[in-house]
């Protein structure tokens, strides 16, 4: 008996003294039944503002339950790097929102941006890289320049048909120009602005871009789905009209003329050739990849619209861009991409717009049990990267609330971007379209301001931390200027 007691006491001493591995979850607000902490996000204009406010209470990494989904929000650059770079492979998933499935033929893994990480995604990214991230010295860069400048000339022709000096609904025209830049560059095809089917798909792409940039309660409370059935049907319908158009007006022609013996003439040919060579790619992958990239034009068009709100609000910024473009072109030609290094203020205005619009990074999801800053993160946890804080936090910028493109220009007049400024994210899932965005938006902004003074009689409001403006938005007034 005594031996047994001694053994038990020794076991107890060993057990209590043994170092224990305790699973620490990051602190955070206590969830309410059913809705979790969704109500806390509703108290701010944007969820990202709510995240910043909550980080002041719970710290730079905190847990939050949205509906019944466990989430972690990461609020400083060091920890954001841990998620996106050091542990990028462990956070390569995406949320399973019903809306995402509806947009991509019932399976969000058809989409490049909304799929989980996979070897297929690696292949799809690598096919796209040469076209979507053209190097300065490449043939593709020359192509982007040519396509961009030609499409913007057509835009100028269309603008001249509008009543000058009066408010004009200009977004559809800018989007049509962007759409033609993308279809011409990626598919060697462009469309007349009056083509009704083209107008329709440009509109639907824009509706989808707006849609993807919104948050809905149903994303976290799927039992609300019956109340959203009409909305979900609308999303599926937009996507299927777009898909049919791409198939009939672009892919079918390319298939008929495809010659495997010659190098691909564009991105569509490259995708079709890949389909013939790679047993892991199927027909669906090709259609959805092309659709994803063509859809990128809405992002460019919306960025231009947001930039124009700044132009309207700060006329002195417009004047500086005009001075830059006039001095580079001497009024004898249109600006182009090879003028970029001589037009830092124009480029800096686009960066400053991206900073102040604080484009949110699509949520990531942990694909395995892992940690952030030592806190346990279970597989399936959704991770929000709060780049709103990186873009407007007082720790990162001087006078962050000021719209000041100068902050991106160094003393020697070149563009400088601090490493914490990641509007296109970083790591494995970084934006593939970022170079196209920079090129096309530069050409449009520089050319529009070369030819027009732009103002507005409408209230040009944009939502904080949102790159999208509503499909039906403010009108702008274009007044032709004397080109110097
Ligand atoms: C204003 C314009 C744009 C902004 C601010 C932007 C920003 C972003 C951001 C923040 C991400 C998420 C990265 C992550 O999850 O870590 C992303 C992903 C992506 N973007 Fe963009 N983007 C823009 C335009 C474009 C365009 C024009 C294209 C196509 C030509 C494009 C293609 C993609 C793709 C395919 C992904 C998904 C990458 C992946 O998940 O592997 N983006 N973008």
From TrEMBL:
Coiled coil: none annotated. PANTHER family: CYTOCHROME P450 307A1-RELATED (PTHR24303:SF31), HEME-BINDING MONOOXYGENASE FAMILY (PTHR24303). GO terms for molecular function: heme binding; iron ion binding; monooxygenase activity; oxidoreductase activity, acting on paired donors, with incorporation or reduction of molecular oxygen. SUPFAM superfamilies: Cytochrome P450 (SSF48264). Belongs to the cytochrome P450 family. PROSITE patterns: CYTOCHROME_P450. May be involved in the metabolism of insect hormones and in the breakdown of synthetic insecticides. The keyword Transmembrane does not apply. It is found in: Endoplasmic reticulum membrane; Microsome membrane. Residues 1-19 form the signal peptide. Keywords: Endoplasmic reticulum, Heme, Iron, Membrane, Metal-binding, Microsome, Monooxygenase, Oxidoreductase, Signal. Heme binds at residue 431. Its cofactor is heme. The keyword Heme applies. This is Cytochrome P450. It is a peripheral membrane protein. It comes from the Eukaryota. GO terms for cellular component: endoplasmic reticulum membrane.
């Amino acid at each position: 008996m005594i031996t047994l007691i001694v053994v038990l006491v020794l076991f107890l001493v060993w057990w209590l003294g043994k170092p224990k591995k305790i699973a620490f979850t990051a602190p955070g607000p206590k969830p309410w039944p059913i809705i979790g902490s969704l109500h806390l996000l509703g108290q701010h204009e944007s969820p990202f503002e709510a995240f910043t406010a909550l980080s002041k209470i719970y710290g730079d990494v905190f847990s939050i339950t949205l509906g019944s989904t466990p989430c972690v929000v990461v609020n400083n650059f060091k920890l954001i790097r841990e998620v996106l770079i050091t542990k990028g492979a462990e956070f390569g998933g995406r949320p399973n929102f019903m809306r995402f499935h509806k947009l991509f033929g019932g399976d969000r893994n058809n989409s490049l941006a909304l799929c989980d990480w996979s070897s297929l995604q690696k292949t799809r990214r690598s096919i796209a890289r040469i076209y979507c991230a053209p190097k300065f010295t490449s043939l593709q860069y020359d192509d982007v320049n040519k396509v961009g400048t030609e499409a913007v000339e057509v835009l100028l022709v269309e603008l001249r048909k509008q009543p000058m000096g009066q408010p004009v609904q200009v977004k559809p025209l800018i989007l049509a120009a962007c759409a033609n830049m993308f279809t011409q560059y990626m598919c060697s095809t462009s469309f007349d602005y009056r083509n009704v089917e083209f107008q329709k798909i440009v509109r639907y792409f824009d509706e989808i871009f707006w849609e993807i940039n919104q948050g809905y309660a149903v994303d976290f409370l799927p039992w609300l789905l019956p109340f959203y059935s009409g909305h979900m049907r609308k999303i599926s319908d937009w996507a299927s009209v777009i898909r049919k158009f791409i198939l009939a007006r672009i892919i079918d022609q390319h298939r008929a003329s495809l010659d495997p013996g010659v190098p691909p003439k564009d991105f569509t040919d490259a995708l079709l050739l890949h389909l013939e060579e790679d047993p892991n790619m199927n027909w669906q992958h090709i259609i959805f990849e092309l659709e994803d990239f063509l859809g990128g034009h809405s992002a460019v068009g919306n960025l231009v619209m947001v930039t124009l709100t700044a132009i309207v609000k700060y006329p002195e910024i417009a004047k500086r861009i005009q001075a830059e473009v006039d001095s580079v072109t001497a009024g004898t030609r249109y600006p182009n991409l090879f003028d970029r290094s001589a037009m830092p203020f124009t480029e800096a205005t686009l960066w400053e717009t991206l900073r102040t619009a604080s484009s949110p990074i699509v949520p990531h999801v942990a694909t395995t049990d892992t940690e952030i800053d030592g806190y346990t993160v279970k597989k399936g946890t959704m991770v929000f990267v709060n780049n709103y804080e990186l873009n407007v936090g007082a720790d990162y910028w001087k006078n962050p609330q000021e719209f000041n493109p100068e902050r991106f220009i160094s003393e020697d007049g070149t563009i400088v971007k601090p490493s914490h400024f990641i509007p296109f994210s970083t790591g494995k899932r970084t934006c593939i379209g970022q170079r196209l965005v920079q090129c096309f938006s530069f050409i449009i902004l520089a050319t529009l301001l070369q030819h027009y003074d732009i103002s507005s009689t409408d209230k040009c409001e944009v939502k904080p931390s949102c790159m999208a403006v509503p499909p039906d938005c403010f009108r702008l007034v274009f007044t032709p200027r004397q080109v110097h």
